[in-house]
Amino acid sequence: MVVRRKKTTIHLNAKETTTILEVKKMIEGILKVPPENQMILKHLTEMEDDKTLGYYNLNGQTARAHTPASLGLCFRDPGG
């Protein structure tokens, strides 16, 4: 899977049983931004932390190595 924010592209390996919160924790390990300040988007819709990638139809059939799933990443303002 590919997560993009502006000019930053992150390649992640995740299963369809991985939750969105777990994806955010992977991103936190790379970009040092806590999950509560991240927003992951699929087709301009925010993905919910407690849902899995499979819930959003991201699985081995829809996201392959040569055509990975592409998600958007936004950061929330920690000050509100």
UniProtKB/TrEMBL annotation:
Keywords: Elongation factor, Protein biosynthesis. It comes from the Eukaryota. This is Transcription elongation factor B polypeptide 2. Residues 1-59 form the Ubiquitin-like domain. One of its GO terms (biological process) is transcription elongation by RNA polymerase II. InterPro entries: ELOB, Ubiquitin-like_dom, Ubiquitin-like_domsf. GO terms for cellular component: elongin complex; VCB complex. GO terms for molecular function: translation elongation factor activity. The keyword Protein biosynthesis applies.
